[in-house]
Amino acid sequence: MKSRKNIQILGFLFLSILASSCGHKEEKYHSVNDRIKVEGKNYHGTSISSEAFLGDGEFVEITEGEHTFLIPERKGKIKLYACIECHSKPLKELQGKVIKKAHWNIELNHANSNTMNCATCHNSKDMNSLKSITGNKIDFNKSYQLCNQCHTKQFEDWKGGAHGKRIGGWAPPRASMTCVNCHNPHKPHIESRWPSRFNTQTEKERK
Ligand code: HEC
Ligand code: HEC
Ligand code: HEC
Ligand code: HEC
Fold first, then answer.
1. Would you place residue 41 in the very low, low, confident or very high pLDDT band (cuts 50, 70, 90)?
2. Does ligand 1 have an atom closer than 6 angstroms to the CB of 128?
3. Among 106, 132, 141, 187, which is best to mutate for testing ligand 2, by the most ligand atoms less than 8 A from CB?
4. What pLDDT is recorded for position 3?
5. Where would one find the signal peptide in this protein (predicted)?
6. What residues does ligand 2 touch, defined as CB less than 6 Å away?
C-alpha cells in the first residue's frame, strides 16, 4: 500500500518537472520564428547540392520578385525554331507558297477566338520571340511571362513553388518545370485520366 503511494508521488513529481521544463522553453522564445533566428545564427545554408540530379538538360536562371531559380531551356527543344528560317518575309508572302501549312497540326484550343488568336502571343514581324499583349518582346525561354498576363494566380503560386513541379532534390539550386513543360500553350487543358494503376477487376465488375 505504502510503496504504491510512493510511486504515485514520484510520478507526480516527474510529470511536474516535465511540465515546468516545457513551460521554460516557451518563455525563452516567443515564437518558432524567434527560435530559428537565435539558434540558426551560425547556419549558413547547406553544403548539400542537388545539381547532380538535374539531368543533362540545359537550364536558364530567372529572377521573379524575391525568387531566383532555374527553369528548363526551351528554344533548343522547339523543332521549328528558329522561326525566321521561314518567317523572314511577311506572312502574306508565305501563305499559299510551297511550304504552305508548315505547321498545319497546330490548332488553337485555349481561350475563345474573341479573346485569342495566333497574334495574341506571336509577332508576325518578329517570329523568333513571343509577344506580350502590349506588343513587348518575350523570350521563348521565358514564356511563363506570357501566361502570367492572364493567369496571375497560377503564376504567383508557381513562383513560390505551390503550382508545378520541382526538378532534382530539395537542396539548392532550386529548379522547377516551367508552364509549357506541362501545358501545351495551344491546348493547355490537362485531360482527366485514370490513375496510372487502378483496379481493372473492379472496373470489370462494375460493367
Ligand atoms: C518550315 C517553315 C516554317 C517554320 C520553321 C515556321 N513557320 Fe510559321 N508559317 C509558315 C508558313 C508557310 C505559314 C503560312 C501558312 C499558311 O497560312 O498557309 C506560317 C504561318 C505562321 C503563323 C500564322 C498562322 C495564321 O494562321 O495566322 C504563325 C503565328 C507562325 N507561323 C508561327 C511560327 C513560329 C512561332 C515559328 C517558330 C517556332 C514558326 N512559325 C516556324 C512556315 C514556317
Ligand atoms: C497563348 C499564347 C499562344 C498562342 C495563342 C499561340 N501560341 Fe504558338 N506558341 C506559344 C508558346 C509559349 C510557344 C513555345 C512553347 C514551348 O516552349 O514549347 C509556342 C510555339 C509555337 C510554335 C513552335 C512549336 C510547335 O509546337 O511546333 C509554332 C509553330 C506556333 N507556336 C504557332 C502558332 C500558331 C500557328 C498559332 C495560332 C493558331 C499559335 N501558335 C498560337 C504560345 C502561343
Ligand atoms: C490573353 C490571355 C491568356 C494568355 C496569354 C494565356 N491564357 Fe490560358 N486561358 C485564358 C483564358 C481566357 C482561358 C479560358 C478561361 C477558363 O477556362 O478559365 C484560359 C485557360 C487556360 C487553362 C485552363 C484550361 C482548362 O480548361 O483546364 C490553362 C491550363 C491555361 N490557360 C494555361 C496557359 C498557359 C500555360 C499560358 C502561357 C503559355 C496561357 N494560358 C496564356 C487566357 C490566357
Ligand atoms: C508540373 C506540371 C505543371 C506546371 C509546371 C504548371 N502547371 Fe498549371 N496545372 C497543372 C495541373 C496538373 C493542373 C490541374 C489540371 C486539373 O485540375 O484538371 C494545372 C492547372 C492549371 C490551370 C487551370 C486552373 C486550375 O488551377 O485548375 C491554369 C490556368 C494553369 N495550370 C496555369 C499554369 C501556369 C500559368 C503555369 C506556369 C506559371 C503552370 N500552370 C505550370 C500542371 C502544371
1. confident
2. no
3. 106
4. 54
5. none
6. 74, 78-80, 103, 106, 108, 110, 116, 118, 120-122, 130, 140, 143, 146, 180, 185-186
For residues 146 and 130, give the distance between their C-alpha atoms in angstroms, rounded to a whole number.
8
As a whole-number percent, the residues of the chain with pLDDT over 70 amount to 84
Q: Write the residue with the smallest CA distance to atom 40 of ligand 2.
A: 118
Strand pairing class (130-131; 175-176): unpaired
Probe residue for ligand 4, chosen from 163, 189, 190, 193 as the CB with the greatest number of ligand atoms within 8 Å: 163
Residue 23: pLDDT over 80: no
Q: Is residue 113 pLDDT above 50, yes or no?
A: yes
**pLDDT(197) > 70:** yes
**DSSP H or E stretch at residue 176:** strand 175-176
pTM of the model: 0.86
